[in-house]
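Review this fold:
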Amino acid sequence: MRRLHPYHHKMVAAYRSNIGRVPIAGGQRAEVYCQFADARIRLSGNPLDPLAAADLERAAVCYRAAGDAPSAARLFCSAEEGFVAHFGVGSLEAARCRKALSALQAARGP
């Protein structure tokens, strides 16, 4: 796994602590979470990294709140894949993503 310079951790922590200031509307906050996930995947070299999956789930929640159901569904699926790869099919994290995905599909209708 690649390493970050110690000062980079401070910058990432500052961005994460101020995420509440980024507007949800238009998917802006979701995009920031996607960038966090992308950076984690590049650092770890693992597209199924569980920390990246957590950020993808957060992005999906933000897209859902912004009214972008297709993007939310896509990211809930990606997050579930990462959680299943590391914690198993029966994990709470994977189940949470499946539940959110089925709720999105039910809201969309038959």
In short: Helices lie at 6-17, 28-44, 50-66, 69-87, 92-108. The radius of gyration is 14 Å. The chain is about 75% helix and 0% strand.
